[in-house]
Amino acid sequence: MALIITDECINCDVCEPECPNDAISQGEEIYLIDSRKCTECVGHYDVPQCVEVCPVDCIIPNPDVVESKSQLRAKYEALISKK
Length: 83
Known about the structure:
Largest sheet: 2 strands, antiparallel
Number of domains: 1
Protein name: 4Fe-4S binding domain-containing protein
Cofactor: [4Fe-4S] cluster
Structural class: alpha+beta
Low-confidence stretches: none
Helix content: 10-25%
Strand order of the largest sheet: 1-4
Radius of gyration: 12 Å
CATH class: Alpha Beta
Strand content: 5-15%
Keywords: 4Fe-4S, Electron transport, Iron, Iron-sulfur, Metal-binding, Transport
Order of helices and strands: EEEHEH
CATH topology: Alpha-Beta Plaits
Domain 4Fe-4S ferredoxin-type: 1-29, 31-64
GO cellular component, one term: cytoplasm
Number of helices: 2
């Protein structure tokens, strides 16, 4: 699954630079994750880096975007082929 940032986000800006897919951006009130780019760091790291650095634990799986590890891997491969 892609991840989402909940409204507990404190806009600390630590997650955005950690995302290897540039899926995180500043929204109007909180940071947002683009589910089309989020691979939960599959292909880059063993664990999602944004989750690792978030001081308030406000990054959770997006229940609206359910994906298997193989689907996340395919998304990662499609993203890197565009670079």
